[in-house]
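Hi R.,

Here are the chain sequences for the assembly we discussed:
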Amino acid sequence: MSQAKLDFVAGLTLFCLAGLLLILIPGQVETTEGDTLTPASLPKIATTFILLLAAALVIQGYLHRREDGETGLSNYFSVYVFVAIGVMFIYVSLIPYLGYVPSTALALAALMFLYGNRNLTQIVLVCLVAPPLILLFFRYTMLVLLPQGTLMEPVLKLFAS
Amino acid sequence: MFKRINRGILFASSLVLAMVAMTGDIFAQSYPSKPITFVVPWGAGGRTDIVGRMVSNVMGSILNQPIAVVNRTGGRGAVGTKFVLDAPKDGYTVLVTTPGNQILGPVHRDVGFVPSDFRGIGRVAVGSVILASNTKQPFTDAKSMITYAKSNPGKVTYSGVKNVLPWLAAEALAGKAGLQFKHVPAKGDADAVPMALGGHVNLVSASSLNSIASHVSAGTLKPLIVFADQRIKELPDTPTASELGYAVTASPWTGIAVAKGVPEDRIQVLRDALKKAVETKSIKNFAKASKTTLSYIDGPEFEKQWDSEFSTFKSVVKK
Amino acid sequence: MDQILTGLELILQVQNIAMMIIGLIVGIVIGAIPGLNVPLAVALALPFTFQLSPLAGLSMLVGIYKGGTYGGSISAILINVPGTPAAAATAIDGNAMARQGKAGKALKLSIYASIFGELVSDIVLILAAAQIARFALSFGPPEFFALALFSLTIIGLVSGSGLTRGAIAGALGVLLSTVGLDPIEGEVRLAFGIYELTGGLKFIALIIGAFAISEALVQVEKIARDRLIVNVLEFSDRPQDNQVTMADLKKVFPSILRGTPLGIFIGAIPGIGSSIAAFLSYGLAKKFSKEPEKFGEGSIEGVAAAESANNAVTGSTLIPLLTLGIPGDVITAIMLGALTVHGLIPGPTLFQQQGDFITAFFIGMLIVSCLHFVIAIIGLPLFIRAVRVPHGILFPLVVVFCVTGTLVATSSLFDVFVMLFFGILGYFMVKFGFQIAPLLIGFILGPLVEVSLRQSLVISDNSWMVFLTRPVSAIFILLTLVIVVHTIWQRYKEVSVNEN
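And here is the predicted structure of the full complex:
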């Protein structure tokens, strides 16, 4: 993507989002009447600012559309990035169910694989050692209790009995 | 090489086992059988936080279980308060509460709970709202301030956080005495007090004695009115609002509560523990050092106080 | 003299010194781990200080504070993830230097600049606390507004040629800061019916997400593109790249001399904070530098300016705390709590009634700074070794620490999701050529601008003249105008040169 195209795409996206937000703000801020400035003022000003600047970016992109100067930014969008984002979201969503240690271990394994680590011993070791160490560290030095999953209770019950 | 890996895996599996052993005690029958969490809906280091931490320390040793204190802030205390309500009602999630989060939140807007959604464990401490001025004002005491404010309507400014006790007290006083104050909204005492010290406003409505105590003894701030039932011993010369003929009291308390629905026997365990805790030497020493006024009342009394304050504040705010 | 001897006697005890060392080490390590940061460390250490003597407890907190403020720059330089907000400005040039193999030089420079700023700040605190406190009180709402507005102009200085993008990112930061209850009325804003959003977007989620998670995503992409594990930093073999030479010192000295008083000034005014100080100092250094084009490409002046300013905040921020009882940020608010528990109510009378304690504490501050230097120098090789951990382990751990750190600090899974959202936002900003620094600056300054503006207008009965009739505020407004006009003019010149 050339700089001009990048400007155009980014500007247009922001312009639409800011426009949408400007329409939404009155319904999203409980306004009090009276003063010159209300709680809605700052969000409105900031959004208007974005709207205008985004328009400038679009125009800038349009005027320079015939130049194909390189941006210096990589044009490469990797599907792995979205996989990584997915892994992170699944990880956090799992914490309340599986508990901190198992979900962290799973996330670590998946992430290490994504970051190109194919050394199985390394992966197994890090997954087994790091999560319990972090949990114990917070538990015993600072009395911070990291979540124990609800789904794990029956499993733990088996161990306890 | 192989040996090293083996040792690593051995270490790891022992860690896992240790954890299982650690969590095993959840399933014992008696309460409390695992660490309790105290949720403070306000920031670390603040008044509520400190009181909560001291009480948790002592109650933890009475109950023989560690108590973890977490600060879950936001929405002027509403987020942490709602969190306690939504947590499993097993008595392991306890709220350190103040009027700001539990009473005034629901008075002002729909926060998803009302004070009576909670059960009182007990009130621990009370403070008092104090109206103070710097020393460069055309008035020197409460009476001359009121006279001055009457003859200069809309000229006297005071700083304080909006929609909380200090603001309610100042507005109620203005209403009863027929004054017109100009309110300069602040983010907290840390913002309101310097405005008065620097002479940018005439008065400050401070939420606790501690935020002005040192300035009072240094002579840079003058306490004018205490919004309490009776004079407080640290400020023996400062009249209460009632003495001046305006019945306005505002005492920001700190107490302990749990969500409604927690089993009755567990509530009783907590109530007994708190009652014991406030009698201990360490709490008393702490209160003395930190200039906290201990004022214990038991759970049922505490709940009554919520109800009455809730309806009082609602009527004040509606007006 | 007697007082100093008593103070020395009080502070020179094994427990106090041990707590300083522990505090510094904990601070540096936690500051350096992305996802864990200073406010978290200080908050977690608070209950621990209840058991200690006041002097030992406070020494530990100060150690954590100072160590952490420096520690954040280690990860900023080595892996482009500022461990603390204060190090965000350091990351710009520090990491650029590291990529050129000059990590050793950057790290050492950041130690020297940090310690210099810190020591001078300590001395100012000791000698002139009362005078500075009086000056700080003269700052009313109009002055705050003018100062915050002035600070916003650094967005222009930091973003350089990408002025439009910088301004967009800044405005976005301001916009995001308004989510939640408004600071004045307590009205809900932009919550879109999500209960947790009424609590606002947490600063810690922004800092961890936008800087650390976005960098982790950028790394995933690099690995996927190059089909190999980009291993660790290359360290140059040339000794002059791993040392700070006399020539370097000569070059950066003006930046440090500017950054230090600037940091002290910002620290003394409650509520602005070290990251703004660092960015202001960075922006000024660029403005006055002989080679402004090198900023962003690994300028040693940029690193020195940012580091001297952010550590210079650590001493002077205690001035409003100790002399007025006013905490300027989260960290000093926790220190206030620690003091209160021990019956030391900060304010003017603390100096009269607890003179010995204050003297001892001040001497302790100087000792902490000296110990800080020693520990930082000893610890340096260890941190360099830590980055030699292959990225295939390092970045997964960074992600886990980001999640854990946010979870521990906010004890809310929702805030962890917010953190991830900021990570995605940060990643796309980087992809589309936006800098993240202006987002941070806007997010910090937005509430400040809003609150002080509305307070000023109440005081002045809605007259905007209040900002021009008060001298301090008028000066800052004027400075703001000069910088804005100058920046736009320069930009215009650049564009017209390019087109001819």
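The CA atoms of residues 102 and 241 of chain C lie 5 Å apart. The longest strand of chain C covers residues 180-181.

Let me know if anything looks off.

Best,
T.
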